[in-house]
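Local shape tokens:
==================
===
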Amino acid sequence: MGVVFGGRSAEHEVSLVSAASIIRALDKERYDILPIGITPEGRWLSSQEAVTLLKQKARIDHLPEHVLTPDPRKKGLVPLNHAGASSETHPVDVFFPVLHGTYGEDGTIQGLFELADVPYVGAGVLGSAVGMDKVVQKQLLQHAKLPVAPFLWFTHDGYRTNAKRWIAAIEQELRYPCFVKPANSGSSVGISKAHNRKELLSWIELAGEYDRKIIVERGVANAREIECSVLGNDDPVASLPGEIVPSNEFYDYDAKYVDGKSTAIVPAKLPKALVKKIQRLACDAYRVLNCEGMARVDFLIPRTLKKLYVSEVNTIPGFTAISMYPKMWEASGLPYPKLLDRLIELAIERHAAKNKLKTTYQPKKDWYKE
């Protein structure tokens, strides 16, 4: 069992904490755990001390380096400088990526797992890619007629070319307050709430530091932040929803991880009919985005409870001690260790089903040899 964490992402530190939590909770009698840390520069480290070394930002250049090769014959980690040295190869039966954000949650490492022909936890290449991109995600949800708050998007370069036009469109169509976000980021990194034009101008530049695509969403007045965990492949199931009461004006990075003052209410105090609607919409969004294994679906619900909006779908949700994904399953009767077991089972089931498909075709004539 290879647990992969860290990575080239603004969510590197969050990933380390999630991975440590997963490694502690995995059944040591059932799994032979191989921690695989990826540095912010992209160097792979396979060591039982990988989490600690990355947390301490220790020097690791003297340690042996192993990487996952796309060669499906290997099915594991091989030495970078001695590819093919079987005595040093680390076979891995299944990978559990805990790589939040870019180069881990966006389909890139999932593509490597596919090439290597190894089972892995979570969404595939397509589900990961569209789940990561907030613009494509919302467009697909809109197309499926799921409720999302109004939004506009543009590239940072396109904005700079015609900033006045975009500011006017935002103020006319979305109004203040509005949220400015990098299209590809998580853990609220680079996300800000603009109350006026001065803030809007500043927050667009901030978002542009993290992604070339920027999305601006209309703020939902007096919104409750509701989350719902989803689990499964073709037939997903949803947990009881939970509610986040952020310590700041919205659930930003500090409110999530730093100040420790935000409150999680699990399960959320909602009418039964609304709970069922949230669970149904969570599974609908999960299917629309081609998610597999797991995802956390976030909602914004005005306090009148008369509307609700799908805010975001996260294909590799947090697994820290305060993370909502495992907490909501715990409240739904599925303890953390059993949840991990189920996620691994789903990864193996999907891989087995995919390997039954044909990847070759024998034409009637060997035309390509001519």
In short: Residues 247 and 262 are 5 Å apart (CA to CA). Residues 82-87 have pLDDT under 50 and may be disordered. DSSP finds twelve helices and 17 strands in the chain.
